[in-house]
# Entry
Amino acid sequence: WKLARGIFAISNEIGNEYSIRYGARQFVTVTDGLKTFATGALTRPQKSLRIYFMGLFHFSYSSNLRAFLDSLKILRAQLPDWKIDFTARCGHIHFTPQADDQITILPYATELEVESDLEKADLLYLPMPFADAAQAFSRFSLSTKLVTYLGSGIPILFHGPEDAAANRVLEDSNAAIRLNTNGPELMAKILLDGLKNRNEIAENALRLARE
# Structure
């Protein structure tokens, strides 16, 4: 760190943390990039809440997903005429779903299949773990799927701690509905309120992706 001629960091948070630990250095933040972007926020059906996750489902996301699936049950009770479900293209998850979870687990697939999935999604789920043991993971990580989600034209639903790098990036640009809790009732309320601004959130995400 001290002798390097140049430093690249995956997020501002990890670059700043290393500067505190090992000595102040200038660094350049480099994330994944995108070759194409949606032209704008994609139109979605009324009374539809199809949530989609793609990528590796880390075991530390399990408590997030369990709480989130419970929040969707609350919304189904409040909105009986809505279509509300969850699709995860991740191969498997690390717990056995309950009978009424309405979750579909799909195998890993090609980019073309993922693009087809996105055409049917209303929200893109981005979890980061709350557990103390995963604190460094949440605080400093900016995942590949975050960048993919930003350019999709579909609103992002971030679910993780407030001090997560991804939360800070999304909060600064108002580019996601953010669930900074694992309390199902509060999550259901935040999600329903956030849906009122879904187009604005998707447009902000696209702007951030271009930047």
Remarks:
- The chain has a mean pLDDT of 94.
- The chain has eight helices and eight strands.
- The longest strand covers residues 48-54.
- Residues 62-78 form the longest helix (17 residues).
